[in-house]
Write a structure and sequence with these properties.
With 135 residues, this protein is mostly beta strands. The protein has a single domain, classed as Metal Binding Protein, Guanine Nucleotide Exchange Factor, Chain A (Beta Complex). The strands form three sheets. A five-stranded mixed beta sheet has the order 9-10-4-3-11. The radius of gyration is 15 Å and the shape is globular. The model has no long low-confidence stretch (mean pLDDT 94).
Amino acid sequence: MSGTHQGSCLCGAVRFEIAGAFEGFFLCHCGRCRKATGSAHAANLFSTTATLNWLAGHERVKAFNLPSTRHTKSFCVECGAAMPNLQMNGALLVVPAGSLDTEIDIPPTAHIMMASKAGWDDRLEDAPKLDGLPG
């Protein structure tokens, strides 16, 4: 998938644009990604060729690098929303899929780190599906 995508944080203070193709879309179930997202998994797009252009609020983006690991999370300091970041000395762009405001046409490549997934992550597809809030 190539093209241009726009994204933003929850409060709207940070806006960005991605130009280029995503080569992978991974759903990571490791404990670090669960902690970083507060969910069953992180959903990140990866590219070695796409470019990131901050349109507004770049000064409000902070990166947290977990010591002695390659785990990095960037986020808006106002609302905490996950934001894109460059890793591996700028060679890899990592974009949280939920931070994009435009649709993507690449399906998830794979669920990864399934050996360390949360016990409550079994059979999530069997949970009832509601179109709105529980009532």
